[in-house]
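Annex B. Sample input.
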Amino acid sequence: MKKITFHIAKMDCPSDATLIEMKLKSLPSVRQIETDLTNRHLRVYLDDDSQAVFSLLGDMNLQASLLSETEIRDVSIQAQSQERTALKLVLLINFLFFLFELTAGILGDSMGLIADSLDMLADALVYGLALYAVGGAIERKKQVACVAGVLQVLLAIIGFWEVIRRFFGAESEPHVSTMLMVASLALIANATCVWLLQKAKSKEAHIQASLIFTSYDVIANLGVMLAAGLVYFFHSPLPDLIVGALIFILVIEGAVRIFKLAR
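Annex B, continued. Sample output.
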């Protein structure tokens, strides 16, 4: 395997780096890409055909100059191992909290917690699919990201239906203490998942999809905590239903971002 390092004079923002990565990933020989915006360095790991990389960068007119070209050992195994470890941990955390939040939501009569638990289940499915994509072809990783987005949309539709049913039904007031306690624990769990995924330092579509889902979960947890306070203040289940609906809107917005990322 070769490691080629370039200085890209005109790579001065994240958009430039993303564009370069997208172009280079179209080359079948490219295995891994690293960008350093501070020093404007680009490192490309590939099996062979380095001339194709030179030609592509030349066509982009970004003033690319070669710094070094060396033969190295395969680095993809270590990167894939880090991805798998992170995904396995967040998969376990999300599935356990799905069971925990669903049970608490049913017992505490909280639509916000039920919505958050379904979101956790969707994330667990996403991480399982992402594990399947690790080490696979770029096209397969994009397909996994699309499947993850579809799952999120389906769960959001189911959630909206339940919110509407409860809105027109005679629902009792949810348990505020249960909502606060469970949402706080879920917030800690999701913050841990974000840290684990960021630690993997992967820009692959399936990993980025997972990170987007988990970042939205943090917002959802804060929403459930806010809903608990409003339920206590107004003595009404309406804030819980509103937050549940908003969580599902966030889920759909996250799915849209996933579809864009996959493209």
